[in-house]
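In this supplementary section we document a worked example of the pipeline. Step one takes a protein sequence of length 425 as its only input; no multiple sequence alignment statistics are reported here. Step two produces a three-dimensional model, which step three serialises into structure tokens for compact storage. The input and output of this example are shown verbatim.
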Amino acid sequence: MDAFQYKNEKLFAEGVAVEKIAAEVGTPVYIYSKATFLDHLQKIQNAYSELDTTVCYSVKACGNINILKFMAEAGSGFDIVSGGELFRAMQAGADTSKIVYAGTGKTDEEITEALNASIGYFNIESEAELENLIELAKANKKTAKAALRVNPDVDPGTHKHITTGVKETKFGVDIERALKVFDDYGKNGAVELCAIHVHLGSGGKTIDPYCDAIKKILPLIDDLRSRGHAIEMLDIGGGFGADYESRTVPSAADYAKGIVPLLKDMNLKLILEPGKSVCANAGIMVAKTLYTKQGGSKRFIIVDAGMNDLLRPALYDAFHFIWPVSVSKKFVPQQRIKDLYLDGVEVVDVVGPICEGADFFAKDRALPPVKRDDLLAIFTAGAYGYTMSSNYNSRRMLPEILVDGDDYKVIRKRQTYDDLIALEK
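The serialised model returned by step three reads:
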């Protein structure tokens, strides 16, 4: 379910008109739908209910503590990659036993904080990190559980910046080295090495790579068990696709149809780390048109949001469906695709105000005619939107709005200029 729909030619977030929010809060602005978050989470939880499954929502995708709070209340654990994300999850009331901690460069301070918080599992990325975790656990008189991140050398076919499960990556260890790591460190007395972690990357659009990776990992688990290592859990990561374009990725149930039968008789707990598949379609960014201009054969729509507010198009050449918040009946979109050509559209570039050629949201995109002050909604912006934003060009960070039914609340205020320089004084 996606709760951003047009009603009477106006875009609504659940029961609230997007125009109303923009008028009262200003633009640019991030707007989230609570119902969409919870719907996607529940679909994943239900899809894997045959197994002993913990869904650990990926905080890095969209980490406002107000969102984490209702996700925790709905039974979600959390996938974290920093001490700051651990702090966020704990501030939101997370069950720390349902936290998994990934990341190649955990500092001693971060590891110690996680040990003290009694998190569920550390996802270990290298032998050196495991040695350090063992040392810190002993020094702090703590015990911990750990999953070795193993690269199955499977490419999910996504962008090169978000593919992480192949060889020659900074993440994890090659599958051929995994047995030796367990043999060398499996009986250390402080860290229980009892699980395997696999993460292929982000943005997967087919089921096969995930199934292929599991099929490669299961013989490793059998080998480890035969050598006396008690493997209790498999973490298959996240990266499951989100519908940036209508109906382009498998559903949670589709993924589960391929994955669950492979694991049903393996006596393993399962951890999933979904991010964008939960939150991408739960958020939009709304921007106001400042100017239109002609440059040679190009027509430009210049809006008040910039690449600092939504980096994905510049960083990944990512597609986001863009459409006016208010349209005539003939322009109400029935689907969200790149080539939505209707009678009367214009082909334009949608760009921002930042002094960079990479400051764009769409190129050669068909849109209904747009004029100054018209609002544009940039869809599927809930994942890696606000969390990757910055103060580049000394631009203020945007407000975040959470819609719940017919009401909305500001869950992050718009940054002020005083906020912008507060830590410099």
